[in-house]
Amino acid sequence: MRRTAGWTLSFLMLTCSAAAGTATSADPLGAEVRAVVTAGSPGALVLVQDGSSRFAEANGLAELGSRMRLRPGDRFRAGSITKTFVAVVALLLVRDGRLRLDDTVERWLPGLLPDDHVTIRDLLGHTSGLSDYAADEEFLRRTAREPRHRWTPRELVRTALRLGPAGPRGERFAYASTNYIVLGRVIERVTGRPIRAELRRRIFDPLALRGTTFTPGALVRGRHAHGYAPSVHDGIVGSLATARDRSEASASWAWAAGAIVSTASDLSRFLGALLGGRLLPPRLLAQMRPAPGTRYGLGLAAFSTPCGTAIGHTGNLLGTVSAAWSSPEGRRRVVAMTNSYPLSPTADTAFRRLLETAFCG
């Protein structure tokens, strides 16, 4: 998504806290969480798990209007981290022999795309040549004018096709949420079930991710972090005093590319199970991982840090920025979230520093 992809892949691209384990509020990581809020974001949280060690902390507000404090276990929109979940569902269908990576979209959804050679592998790895529908300026203006509009997958694909191809199929990586919108429809066609049901049956329930739902509608039930969108004038991010609460806007335009709502603990559990080999056979998990020297595999991204490469995904949707990173084998895992976007340069730097400090220990 144009508004989100810049931050999402750029790693390639008043105090209230709670901690677990032996960490305390004086811990340097706690200071990094507070720094994000001091820099102008309503709230921030982080979870670090490394073997039996666990640290969780939150600072600031989940909701500005009610002054509700942010807690480490609060739910939030995970944005494009959804893509990793959807990729796992697709690869489970490959494992079961119901789908092949070299199947064309044309086989399952005849006539949807003008290029009838685009494959499932292309969609998973963003090499389809499809443009990102969120790069369409009129589309972005309409989502702002009509925040409750229920976008259909076909509308989103048509929006992307109007932009023309991003490049030749299979020749280069071009991140586009359009790929996962199409992939979601393929999964529904193969299984005869809604993507929501497949996510729940294959991932949420088996891993007991009780705080995780697929929520493309506007209503997020229960306690959750509200996302905020400050105004921007001449490239300068405004204050929270004029920020729009985006928590009641529809996420239908993100759908299979970004509509999961989750918690830091659930995202960490999912990433640990995936990279620990509990969800996919080794041959398919190996294809999810980015190859050495590349940024993206089939649903997982690589992020350079001062202490080596992190594997996972980032997300940015409706005023919420999040990241779920792990060491390659799944032992050390970091999930962080802040509930404001766009971030000021100071807040952006603080959030990046929080992630790197949490991952590098």
Structure description:
The chain has 361 residues and is an alpha+beta fold. It has a single domain (2-360), classed as 3-Layer(aba) Sandwich (Beta-lactamase). The chain is built from twelve helices and 14 strands. A seven-stranded antiparallel β-sheet has the order 3-2-1-14-13-12-11, sandwiched between helices. A three-stranded antiparallel β-sheet has the order 4-10-5. The relative contact order is 0.20.
List keywords for this structure.
361 residues, alpha+beta, Beta-lactamase, 7-stranded antiparallel sheet, 3-stranded antiparallel sheet, 12 helices, 14 strands, 33% helix, globular, disordered N terminus
Question: How are the elements arranged and paired?
Answer:
Layout lengths: L1 H7 L19 H11 L4 E8 L2 E11 L4 E2 L6 E2 L4 H14 L9 H4 L11 H6 L11 H9 L7 H10 L15 H14 L3 H10 L8 E2 L13 E2 L2 E2 L2 E2 L6 E2 L14 E3 L1 H12 L6 H7 L12 E5 L2 E10 L2 E7 L5 E7 L6 H16 L1
Antiparallel strand pairs: 1-2, 1-14, 2-3, 4-10, 5-10, 6-9, 7-8, 11-12, 12-13, 13-14
